[in-house]
């Protein structure tokens, strides 16, 4: 007897550095799961790390963790969702019962799984996820809803940082994450944000999204920042992952101020601070990893337009375009790229 198995197109990392578009079996929603027809999945620096075999990538892998789409199959036992619901996905799949989950830090789950990082993700026509990871997005366009994950990470950073009202903030990095962080800071108490980036087009975009001052990276930028704010900035944040930036942060932070280390530095990198300076200037150093139940916060910022993302979407590519999208990630500023969305319906 002849059976026809349904298939779908997906981008697959088959080995470090090897990316292919393949036909894979169409996944079925199991108990407690939903299947999503992907409308838009954002490309992120993490995808480039995964392609290089970092982050303990288990290959073969369908990457893509910034996913929005429409529920097209509801598994047994799922409540609260139906076919046709537009949703954004939180990619973090946590066990709920380990040490960290029980402390409310589910992104540190000892049995951590994440869609598009350890299990099949959104650079595919369809993806299956626990229903508990899906969030209905109402009338929000799904291209905008695809920002729920990166903005959820930014929201976690804001919850960790707890900006005080009328803070003067400094931000290094005006890539897609920096531009989300800029807007989140302004929505969370910062009275002004000064943005530093090497690329002038990005600084222009930062100004259009509310940056009060922008400076282009140069050998003189640190003394320029000291001249601008002789008492320092109440908040100094970075979305660059560059050690030469992090190294300077304590010297630019006002007494009593806070530093947010948001970018992903190489694991083996280190910087040296004066502990005396941290002590004597009452400085707070804040780290922020991934997202933690912050998708609703992100969706609220997006729905209320307190955070605008339309101008960050510079490219829409089909699944086959993931190669090109990762090339843009590898060369910041290339083709003016900010956020690239993979849209499986494009051919
Ligand atoms: Zn990401
Ligand atoms: Zn856990």
TrEMBL record:
Cofactor(s) listed in the protein's UniProt record: Zn(2+)
One Pfam family in the UniProt entry: ADH_N
Highest taxon above the source species: Bacteria
Record GO terms (molecular function): oxidoreductase activity; zinc ion binding
Transcription regulation is among the record's keywords: no
Enzyme Commission numbers on file: 1.1.1.-
Annotated ranges, domain Alcohol dehydrogenase-like N-terminal: 30-136
Principal EC category: oxidoreductase
SUPFAM superfamilies found in the cross-reference section: GroES-like, NAD(P)-binding Rossmann-fold domains
Domain Alcohol dehydrogenase-like C-terminal: 176-303
Keyword line: Metal-binding, Oxidoreductase, Zinc
Transmembrane stretches, start-end: none
PANTHER family the record matches: L-THREONINE 3-DEHYDROGENASE
Family: Belongs to the zinc-containing alcohol dehydrogenase family.
Name listed for the protein in its UniProt record: Starvation-sensing protein RspB
Organism: Meiothermus granaticius NBRC 107808
Gene that this polypeptide is encoded by: rspB
């Amino acid at each position: 007897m002849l059976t026809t198995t349904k298939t779908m197109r997906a981008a697959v990392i088959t080995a470090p550095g090897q990316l292919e578009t393949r036909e894979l079996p169409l996944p079925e929603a199991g108990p407690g799961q939903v299947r999503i027809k992907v409308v838009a999945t954002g490309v992120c620096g993490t995808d480039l790390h995964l392609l290089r075999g970092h982050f303990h990538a288990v290959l073969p892998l369908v990457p893509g963790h910034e996913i929005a789409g429409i529920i097209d199959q509801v598994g047994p036992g799922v409540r609260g969702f139906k076919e046709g619901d537009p949703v954004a996905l939180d990619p973090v799949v946590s066990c709920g019962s380990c040490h960290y989950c029980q402390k409310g830090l589910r992104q540190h789950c000892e049995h951590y799984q994440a869609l598009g990082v350890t299990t099949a993700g959104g650079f595919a026509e369809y993806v299956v996820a626990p229903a508990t990871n899906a969030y209905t997005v109402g009338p929000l366009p799904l291209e905008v809803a695809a920002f729920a994950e990166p903005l959820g990470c930014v929201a976690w950073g804001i919850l960790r940082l707890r900006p005080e009202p009328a803070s003067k903030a400094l931000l290094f990095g005006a890539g897609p994450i920096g531009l989300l962080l800029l807007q989140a800071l302004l929505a969370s108490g910062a009275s002004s944000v000064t943005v530093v980036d090497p690329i002038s087009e990005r600084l222009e975009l930062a100004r259009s999204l509310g940056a009060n001052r922008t400076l282009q990276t140069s050998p003189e930028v640190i003394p320029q920042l000291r001249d601008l704010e002789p008492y320092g900035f109440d908040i100094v944040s970075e979305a660059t992952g560059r050690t030469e930036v992090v190294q300077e942060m304590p010297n630019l932070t006002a007494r009593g101020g806070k530093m947010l280390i948001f970018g992903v530095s190489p694991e083996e990198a280190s910087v040296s601070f004066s502990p005396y300076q941290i002590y004597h200037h009452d400085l707070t150093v804040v780290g922020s990893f991934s997202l933690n139940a912050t998708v609703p916060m992100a969706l609220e910022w997006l729905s209320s337009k307190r955070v605008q993302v339309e101008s960050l979407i510079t490219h829409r590519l089909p699944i086959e375009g993931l190669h090109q999208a990762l090339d843009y990630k590898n060369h910041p500023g290339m083709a003016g790229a900010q956020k690239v969305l993979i849209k499986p319906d494009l051919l």
